[in-house]
Fold:
Amino acid sequence: MSSIVLGMGNGKAMFGDEKVSDADLITLVDPNGLNINAFDLSVLRGDGIFEATTVWKGYPVSLENHLRRLAQSAAMVDLPKPNFDAITRGVEQVIDAYDDPEPGPLLRIIVSRGLDPDTGVGKASDRTPTVFIFLDAKGTLHETDPITMASMTRGYPSDITERAPWLLNGAKTLSYAFNCAVHRECARRGVGDAVLYTEDGYTLECPNSSIVARYGDTFVTPDPSIGILNGTSQRELFAWARQEGKSIEYRKLPIAELREADRLYMTHGGWVIPVNEIDGRTLDYSADEIAQANEAIHSGRTHDDALSIGPDYRY
Amino acid sequence: MSSIVLGMGNGKAMFGDEKVSDADLITLVDPNGLNINAFDLSVLRGDGIFEATTVWKGYPVSLENHLRRLAQSAAMVDLPKPNFDAITRGVEQVIDAYDDPEPGPLLRIIVSRGLDPDTGVGKASDRTPTVFIFLDAKGTLHETDPITMASMTRGYPSDITERAPWLLNGAKTLSYAFNCAVHRECARRGVGDAVLYTEDGYTLECPNSSIVARYGDTFVTPDPSIGILNGTSQRELFAWARQEGKSIEYRKLPIAELREADRLYMTHGGWVIPVNEIDGRTLDYSADEIAQANEAIHSGRTHDDALSIGPDYRY
Structure:
């Protein structure tokens, strides 16, 4: 049974114009084997980008928005443009090879800059990006139990992204050592996750999630132009909220105001997860509401609307 | 001929107390082959640490200071303590397998947190760090031609490291996407390298180097407690300067003052490289002085003194 499917992608087709047949697009390999060269820039430098979502009963949640964000990350780190058609076909091949009863395995698309041209092994390479796609039913899967949260500084002022694009704020890179460190800090503090804020007190995002606050009938999330990811699951939640007759809003959101929200939602990987405590303050949540939002997202009901939601449609 | 040597290390011996024979310490593998699993945390998260130096005619420059810094990085990212003896023996085995005429190949020691326990492949693993060591004569090697430099903001205030240890400032992690982005920004601006500074105007370091300024007979470098790496080659240069009767100084160094230095030195990987321009201002340098410093460092003359040099011997 294939509970974990790992496909090595054709970098020239997925990040270039090379047309290849399905047979040459993805090579399925043993997930437990050795499949990456030690001089790959993913290994040596975390120099690459990725996207992650859930495949629910064969349907890759928000795939198009994930590919658009992958394209944005690629532009920010000077990688070639992703070929949406080739990557989508690759994702389909990986999904086709999956046959575990688990309905919601995790999908990840990983792209590195290829072999490091500053090493002897990479020097002669043609700088083709390394691409691989996996589907995994056996790792940690999402749960919708409410989680506790602490706020922590990200260390940057809110205007830094415009002034210093080399910080790559807003690109989803493979350099996640900081994000991992925040989660270890959460474990030390005995909380489930963290929400980051700027030195001047504005809400950013969680280490691998977006944050949405609810005030009455209005759902609010930080404007991504502050230097955070443009949330894919967050846009699905916004689409659901709008379908339910609520208002949605992108803006600069003071962390002090976030702490006073009526409800808080953490969104990532195709899921909405309720937050029941922030910085020690208890928050109300509705398991029914969460179940309805996730059901709408996983069934594809919110997909089309989510494609046109954004702060000012720049994303 | 072995111009590139890649050895996969025994993680239980190198990051634990397991005693193993030399035969079980390092496994030499084909550098051009597949040698890493795709679910390794180096690949997926840049979640690991490393050190890099030059092996000059068989002598690994500053190895003990590199291992001390590796231990400091390990502590900062909650990895087990490195076993200096096992890693040193592993480095020796890799050096023994090298037989290219190039006298100064690059050595790198790479450590990741192992397979990702949040994936199906990593879930059952025992969280042994992945370790590999390579020696490479065929990649980009150091040169001592003078380079031009531009200063850029790091986005952080100078007091952030103490307040937010989860930023991992001062740890040498595998998450180098930012460092790579700074180098691409340098290429766009037509300069050789960058020196970073804090939002309140204090000098930090270069993306993969330390910076040393000379004012008369005093060599000055930023105090690492500001949240930068404790430079290994920088300490070798300080040891040389002191042997030559000069003064050395660690302190908070305003970027404005750096720009007014008599001379500037970039140090990394066992080398001192002169800077001949910063932010458009031309700087004097002496090729003789640079050659003498590098000769002293590569011959091991500065090694012992460099071990006891530091801002206040905390490092």
In short: Residues 235 and 309 of chain B are 6 Å apart (CA to CA). Residues 4-136 of chain B form a domain with the D-amino Acid Aminotransferase; Chain A, domain 1 fold (CATH 3.30.470.10). DSSP finds eleven helices and 14 strands in chain B.
